[in-house]
Fold Ribosomal RNA small subunit methyltransferase I.
Amino acid sequence: MTGTLVLAGTPIGDVRDAPPRLAEELAGADVVAAEDTRRLRRLTQALGVTPRGRVVSYFEGNESARTPELVEELAGGARVLLVTDAGMPSVSDPGYRLVAAAVERDVRVTAVPGPSAVLTALALSGLPVDRFCFEGFLPRKAGERLTRLREVAGERRTLVYFESTHRVDDTLAAMAEVFGADRRAAVCRELTKTYEEVRRGGLGELAAWAAEGVRGEITVVVEGAPEQGAEEVGAEELVRRVRVREEAGERRKEAIAAVAAQVGLPKREVFDAVVAAKNAGA
């Protein structure tokens, strides 16, 4: 009989948010795979529990190599508990490879639900929550970051991102450039911790605020693109937006695609507006 893989949510800040079942699983698992064994030690001490099973590290650097080992443990009947530093495993954290490998071997996979920075930030943002998408971390390089943002410029659902404290100012500035300075957003930092803060406003305003320095764990929630049609954005404005992007270094084809996504129009309509303006000498 095969074992069971348990994905356990851990507190994102306040240890009192730990689900009661977490202590039980930590105490009873045959193997505890932790993203950081030192953090795990602090968590178990805070919960007053001592793991009886073997504790191993499972992080980005050894995830590929350790996954087969853990799968063999599972295939042999072990109960393996996977925990990350904060939140649910596999959500922008190690875990996906192990879950996929366990499923491939017909191993039972279950979870101990716990705190989530994604859902907590979304609920606190004050933005629409009926439809949303999680985009994780944006690329570190400026060009790749802009490209990724342009891909979702026309997304109508609320967007949720994780970001590093060292890059949040650049990210917000890029979002203001691509989505528009007035697009509503919320920067949630240090959720459930002593210095928790939720700063709400337009992307331009938030970018200026972040330029002064922001510390802590950051989750950014951005309002989805407004529903607009051709009757709301005229040809002259379409051409102006394309020109702004071209002057910033974008190729015309990419600029037209990004503007079309922003306003919810077919790329052909934006292209025709640009060509007409060129022919008119505007």
